[in-house]
Amino acid sequence: MKQVRILSTIMFSDRDKPCPYVITLIMSAILIIVSYHIAFAALPDFNTPGTITVSELVVGRDGNPAGTGWNSAPCWVDFGPFTSGTITIERDGLKDLFIGDKDGNVWFYENIGTEREPAFGNGFILQTEDDTTVNVGHNATPFLIDWDRDCDLDMIVGNSRGTFYYYENEDGKFQSRGELSRGPVLVAQTSTVGSAQDIFVVGKYAYVAAGEMGLQIFDISNPYKPSLVGGFDSAGSAQGVFVRGNYAYLADGKEGLRVVNITDPKSPKETGGLAPRNPQGAKKPQGDEGVQPGATDVYVVGNYAFVACGIGGLQIVDVTDPTKPNAGKENRHGFDVPVGGIANGVYVVSNHVYVAAGNAGLQVLEVQDFFPTVGTTSSIGTTGSEGIVQLGVVDTPGCAMDVWIKPDISEQYVYVADEKGGLQIIDVGDGQTVSNTDMTAAAIVSSIAFEDAQNVFVKRQQGTDTTIAYVSDGANGFQMVNVTDPTAPERIDGASYNTKDYTSAVWVQDGFIFVADRMAGMAIFDDYNPPNSQAQNLVNVNAFYSSPHIFDLDEDGFCDMLSGDEHGYVWFFHNTGALSNPTFNDGFMIRGSSSSGMLDVGQYSTPWVVDWNGDGVKDLIVGNETGNVLFYEGYEITPLSTDSIKGLIPLATSNRYLAFKSPKNIKVSGRDIDVGRKSCPMIGDWNMDGGLDLIVGDENGNITVLLNTKTWPGEEPEFNASFKIRGSQPKNLWIGEYSVPFVVDWDNDHKKDIIIGDVYGYVTYFRNSGTNTKTPEFSSGFRPQRTGPQGMMDVQVDGNAVPVAFDWDMDGKKDLIVGDFHGKVWLFKNIGTDAAPVFGTPTQMLSNNAPLDVGQYAAPFVCDWNHDGQKDLIVGKESGVCLLFINTGSANGTPTLGTPTILSNTSGDIDVGRFARPWVVDYNGDWLDDLIIGNGDGNIKVYLNMGNEQKPEYAVGINIQCEEIDIDVGQYAAPAIVDWNNDGTLDLLAGHKEGFVQLFTSSSDTETVWIDESITLKTGVNDWPAFRYNAARDGNDPSEALMPPLDMYWTYNTGYPVVSSPVVYGGTIGVCSKNGSVHNIDMYGNGSL
């Protein structure tokens, strides 16, 4: 046998050699041992009792008793800073709650808890900037999102009418923007083969300048089914088109102006043309020499065509005879744009010409003589050819690409598509009398930002005084702006469409919008969106009860919207707008597997999008009227040409669609989630552990949280219990009658939870949602579930449940041992996981292979009575005595209980009168387990162990006191002794007949003996627990116990009984003896064991 060397009995220190034993200990466990075994050197002195409380958030009630709650719909985000009325909330990194109620209000609840354990203060109803209450009528369902991409969270709110209200967040204050209007609805898309650059609509034909494919003509008599009827392949690249009479005038790039006879649209023919103008005095470039002029736009008035020729400036062409443009006239007649400019677009009113001149801004010209006599004096440059006078110029901030004027309204305002400068609105004078004087004061009066404004079309809405500017925004599609007051234009929310390719030009006629969409061809839209929308133009679910969820479901980079409705369907609204101005079409119901063919949850559907099972495909989580929450697994399909795609969600990748499988009810502890009625689910990481948790509102104004025990990516969530969100209005925890508490870390989060039995035989779990360093805090309770003949059901025995949570069968999972009114003890084996218990059908425990039956009122407690490493069972009974069942089986399997004996002391059988409820703990800090028993009179007695660990001998019982008065909880005292508030002293919880749980905390001046502060504890990286197996204490893991037979290596004599488990740390062993010494032993001796 090896010799060992004593290092010290005071200091713990690191050693470099690794420990070869399995039984090693992390230093946190060392600290636990030391404080647990040495801190209690006297009987606890209890303070005046309080009652364990719970606190639940109820919508519309906390802080406002007059509130009504009902139909709570939660949205959970970190919000701030913002102001509502007189209240200012700062952003603090904690997620707050926005909750809708049945009255149409939206409430805000600030998180006053922690990141991992949220709790919420008194709520208040949100107000807008003008102190108007946020209210959408009835059944508000809010969703927070940065709607306009300005880095502030805005709010979309569903309601009982089936529409959606938009509240914009401007500088921390909500602005009401009314109900969302439907955007323009795409009704047709047709290819133009070439690149659609410009469009002109007359009568039943649309004329498209199709780039290298020249002119293409479409029959649009039925806008829903346009058809190509003819075309003309020009020699250049058609960039612009204007139609007058029987002729189409093409701005054909380097080929200049081409005139096409369209008398027969099926067979258009070129009748004449003219090369583009060069700047005055410039030599025409040859071949690839330099930048050549090219026709980009054309406008025809009377007998003249005005052609924007790029660097060639403005060209005026006489088309009196369309077959001979400029016959006998000067081809260079026109106007040179200033250096650095380029003529991109042109618009003519009478003899006033407006040129979008690129970096040279807006050029305003007056034609005094269209073609002066050749040879007369002319000045070149800013005044152009003789007869053309420059009235003025307005320098725009971007690059002027196009220009439009609405002369029937007023020539005073000019609208310029200014590329990155957006839409610029310029005041050039008073009415129809633009003059040099007017242009002196010309200025930009307003603007609307766009990323790539290429073209603008202005039109007054038929039958109204409303004027709309349709702006082609390149890769962002087109957007609509209310310019009824040109000095105060307003972007129309929802009035935009992000086309497939690149919107070059827009034309509006007869309620339809025609778009030149470059390589995507021509697109046609229903123009649904005047700004003063009527009900039929609102985004809605065509039913009552909208519940929005906004998510990019079709993977095109733009957020779409889903919504439930009163019938239980789920709607998909495709975002046809832009990132900064979402626009939704009419929407459709998503396909499901129900008899109707649609996804149908019954009534009152509330959807949420998430990848629930971690397979990379988006799924749907949907609440319904019955209070359940359903999981629809998403999958991607490529339909055959003969398959119907109705109800499928088209994905950005061509011919791929998102579909959903048949639903599964999401379960908690093996049972379908049921929150009552009208479940409103949302998904988030509630406790910041990496898992997808489920937060569900219901019609009673409650918010239920279900914590996911699966925290690894790709794992489908699993829920072990549910609890209500904690609020700020505590109330006494109450379960009915005859409460019997047991303290256990139920969900493995290292915090003390409570399970409580009641008179009806149920067991209720109350989760500790506080912190592990303070007094536990609770919200609502949850009944654990077990299997039954009809599926899952509550854990229940036949009256007066007395529960103990313990791993009875040594499989690493906590089981439930429950006594009942008839004196039986039942084992509910955990067939789930330790973090998410689900229990099997109960079996009656046996004693000597016969059913264990103590008569009436069985109150079990599990402990290692004789410290032989095996768990034994003590059972109190109605007569007031406690029976001891010694485990005669093995230490690593299901216990085998022998014949019971009555616990006794020096005075005979221990008898507390009636209804004995036992608990075993080292009550006085002498390292021996004592016996605590509650009785039917409401008293709690302690029987101190005067023997030893293997053979307890008990003194006469004494009543536990509080402030020198015997504790009396009324009737049926059920004690639980733990360090409840983590202050290092034992506290007492006591259930009783009234159904509450009283708390007696130890006085801070309780006499204690502490280890000297000079002791230092250090640890190596491979330290593990080495507790002896002790069923009465936490922190023991039977799965790590050593299995016999074992060899003896060496022994060490401490001189006094060993009163703690040995602790191995970096090559030394620490152990405590009964005289208070801490021995530090070098287990390697002189270098070897």
From TrEMBL:
Transmembrane segments: 21-43
Domain of life: Bacteria
Organism: Candidatus Desantisbacteria bacterium CG23_combo_of_CG06-09_8_20_14_all_40_23
Pfam family for this entry, one: FG-GAP_3
Full protein name: VCBS repeat-containing protein
UniProt region (Disordered), positions on chain: 263-291
Keywords from the UniProt entry: Membrane, Signal, Transmembrane, Transmembrane helix
